[in-house]
Write a structure and sequence with these properties.
The protein is an alpha/beta fold and 238 residues long. The protein has seven helices and 13 strands.
């Protein structure tokens, strides 16, 4: 059985993943036409490259259809309930850094922290008759974060497009979004709250607890040695 390794199928994340593995003696390449999600791996025997969108990789790991996967730590935590029971986090890879933050309009001069946001949210509901809306794609992470910080008087609204534009479009009063530089937020006249980010994300190598690892022992041990990664205790068959 081949050891299936899922990596992002396009863009900067794919390029950086290929570079990271190449620096450790594992060469990856796409094969076929641009729209064909096929690839090759050289440097370790028995490893099969599976090209997927970064957002698909957490679900494929959870289902056990791939053994290993490279994706953002934010996507695993958002997509998978109780994620440590479904995957092992093997290694942060040191690229793809981005912070999941909460931002509000710059004109809210008295709102700089979560405590300020909590006070504004209570006043907003009293004035408008509905809860302050926070637009985000990251419902699980944001809800858990706000609960941990005692913010309760809000509602999350789903945003699958340009989250920063929801305030201008009057569909939300605040946003929770992923950012690496903050430039897009500033361009939309938003400011990031001073508190710690909801999550500091980066590209990370994960292993699937539900995968069938039988027959993958030589490949997994060879790859782990090449990458300098410890094989997780409890990984059956390896």
């Amino acid at each position: 059985m081949s050891l299936k390794l899922g990596v992002p199928s396009k863009g900067r994340l794919m390029e950086k993943t290929f570079e990271w593995f190449a620096e450790r003696g594992v060469q990856m390449a796409r094969t076929g036409a641009a729209r064909e999600y096929a690839g090759t791996v050289e440097g370790v025997e028995g490893v099969e490259l599976v090209l997927l969108s970064a957002s698909e990789i957490p679900r494929e790991l959870a289902a056990g259809r791939i053994h290993l996967g490279v994706t953002g730590s934010d996507l695993v935590r958002e997509t998978l309930a109780d994620w440590p029971s479904q995957v092992w986090e093997l290694l942060p890879m040191g690229f793809g850094h981005a912070d999941l933050i909460i931002a509000v309009p710059k004109v809210w001069v008295d709102v700089d922290t979560l405590d300020d946001l909590d006070a504004v949210a209570a006043a907003f509901r009293a004035e408008h008759g509905f809860r302050l809306r926070i637009a985000t794609k990251y419902h699980r992470l944001v809800r858990d974060y706000l609960r941990a910080h005692g913010v309760a008087d809000y509602q999350l609204v789903d945003s699958q497009g340009a989250t920063e534009g929801t305030i201008r479009n009057l569909t939300a009063e605040a946003v929770a979004d992923i950012t690496s530089t903050g430039e897009t937020l500033r361009a939309n006249h938003l400011k990031i709250l001073r508190d710690a980010p909801v999550h500091c994300s980066q590209a990370t190598l994960f292993a699937a607890r539900a995968a069938d690892w039988s027959g993958t022992t030589p490949a997994m041990r060879a790859l782990a040695a090449q990458l300098g990664v410890a094989v997780p205790e409890g990984l059956t068959g390896v």
